[in-house]
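Usage

Read records sequentially. Each one opens with the input sequence:
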Amino acid sequence: MRRIIKSVLDRTPDISVVGEAQDPLEAREAIKALNPDVVTLDIEMPRMNGLEFLEKIMRLRPTPVIMVSSLTVSGAETTIRALEIGAVDCVAKPEAGERDLFHSLPDKIRAAAKTKVGSLADRLRDRADDRPTAPNKTFRTDGSVLAIGSSTGGVEALTAILSCFPANCPPTVITQHMPPLFTRSFAERLNRLCAPTVAEASDGAQLLDGHVYIAPGSLTHHLEVVGTGRLRCRLRQAEAVNGHCPSVDVLFHSVAKAAGAGAVGIILTGMGRDGAAGLLAMRQAGARTLGQDAASSLVYGMPKVAHEVGAVERQVPLRRMGNEILQLTNTATDTPPCLSPQASK
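and closes with the structure output:
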């Protein structure tokens, strides 16, 4: 894998491989000596697993890390945990016979080099400060459909937002850029952590209150919302849009058409411009729209472009995003259902 990764990156003029290591003990010394901008880290290594080593990096020498994982259930589960600990992004190991080896890695490295990576201690302290109170029992959905798009940094952002949703939250559809199989593990983890029911979207699934539908990681299908009256999920086979399949733009355009002013659109941290045009279509159709602000975005790319084209009604820090969403979709007039000490100031 090291040879393959180096070969791919050596063909990229603006990226230099400054060192290699066969295990975490070698890597520790190499990181100290070479001070790299970005580290690619395999989950499966001798002498210490990648997750344990990542925790040490994030505690002692915070550095942007991209996890390299096998396309297995255990590999996906470990990668999701790594993204929660502080890894910036992940890339799947190529399967036998795959020609386009690590095609997305150079772009992921460029984005990672620009990220703001804090120590694990800081991240844990911030999460404790922002922990929401229990959802207000008087929450009543106003019938809105909630659509969210995210990419790099989205695992942490989505976890923060959905963890303060009540069990009867508005029907929520999400496209998060992530390799196949990883989205299933992510959905299962969110389902254990959050009050609503969270699952990968299936073709034909009806949108229901208290349910969150995550677009399956795919190279062939996009998640859309379709129907009149009773809305449902559709997995449509099509080419990549903005280099992504599933694409946030495809989801947002479909929500604009199916739900119009009865929708709320959210664009979160991520690289590139996927979602900007679709969110603009949602706003033009009467939907309310929010974008994550620069300070709280791991990569202020997708929200920035959406803001620049006029798709974003307001920019909101991540610590307030869950509360802002629930205020937009709650018909109750008393205390908002999701409040944290910091967000209430």
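Summary fields computed downstream for this record:
- The longest strand covers residues 145-150.
- The two ends are 49 Å apart (CA to CA).
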